């Protein structure tokens, strides 16, 4: 049985991203996203809290995060929970760390230049472009360049090859 591991977070960076490079020069970044939440206590009063979620990203996504994000930036993160283990340096045994491995990071605050200067007005603007590897993120299949003749959009468009079950072309 396969599981499902998908995380979507929206919050603000609690600290500046730290971009580092592996020995083979692959970029990776680590930052923390503060995510607020609220609940009612037993007296019916609203309480507020904040979770601080560690985030990591790799490759070009990591470089873009390091270039354009800073403490306080509003972001939408899509990724998966990762748990890793390591031996403690002090010899006290195995330790575990849990973080979110980001697949996509989207700016949702005001636009910023690479130097961190704000420009444009965030009110009424569409969300910032995704920092995903795919520049077509968020577009429909047809907007990504697949036309009506490129692949069937429903089973009636499929050619009948005489097989009893239709094969889905994706």
What does this structure look like?
Helix content is 6%, strand content 41%. The chain has one helix and eight strands. The longest helix is centred in the middle third of the chain and has 10 residues, at 59-68. The strands form two sheets. It has a five-stranded mixed barrel. Strands 7-8 form a two-stranded antiparallel ribbon. The protein has a single domain (7-134), classed as OB fold (Dihydrolipoamide Acetyltransferase, E2P) (Beta Barrel).
Q: Keywords, please?
A:
170 residues, mainly beta, OB fold (Dihydrolipoamide Acetyltransferase, E2P), five-stranded mixed beta barrel, two-stranded antiparallel sheet, 1 helix, 8 strands, globular
Q: Brief description of this entry?
A:
The protein has 170 residues and is mostly beta strands.
Helix content: under 10%
Please give the radius of gyration in angstroms.
Answer: 21 Å
The overall strand count is: 8
**The first-level CATH class name:** Mainly Beta
Biggest sheet descriptor = 5 strands, mixed, barrel
N-to-C SSE string, H for helix and E for strand: EEEEHEEEE
Percentage of β-strand residues: 35-45%
When the domains are counted, the total is: 1
Based on Cα principal axes, name the global outline.
globular
CATH superfamily: Nucleic acid-binding proteins
Which segments are poorly predicted (pLDDT under 50) over 5 or more consecutive residues? 119-134, 136-144, 146-166
CATH topology: OB fold (Dihydrolipoamide Acetyltransferase, E2P)
Q: How far apart lie the N and C ends?
A: 22 Å
- Name the average pLDDT: 76
* Secondary structure category: mainly beta
Q: Please count the helical segments.
A: 1
Going across the major beta sheet, what is the strand order? 1-3-4-6-5
CATH architectural type: Beta Barrel
């Amino acid at each position: 049985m396969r599981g499902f591991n998908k995380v979507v977070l929206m919050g603000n960076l609690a600290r500046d991203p730290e971009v580092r490079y592996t020995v083979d020069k692959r970029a990776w970044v680590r930052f923390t996203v503060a995510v607020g939440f609220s609940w009612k206590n037993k007296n019916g009063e609203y309480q507020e809290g904040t979770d601080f979620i560690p985030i990591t990203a790799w490759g070009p996504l990591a470089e873009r995060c390091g270039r354009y994000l800073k403490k306080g930036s509003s972001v939408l993160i899509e990724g998966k929970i990762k748990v890793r283990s390591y031996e403690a340096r002090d010899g006290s045994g195995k330790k575990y760390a849990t973080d979110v491995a980001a697949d996509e990071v989207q700016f949702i605050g005001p636009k910023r230049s690479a130097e961190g200067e704000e420009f444009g007005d965030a009110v009424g603007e569409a969300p910032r472009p995704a920092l995903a590897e795919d520049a077509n993120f968020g577009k429909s299949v047809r907007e990504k360049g697949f036309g009506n003749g490129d692949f069937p959009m429903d089973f009636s468009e499929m050619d009948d090859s005489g097989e009893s079950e239709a094969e889905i072309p994706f």
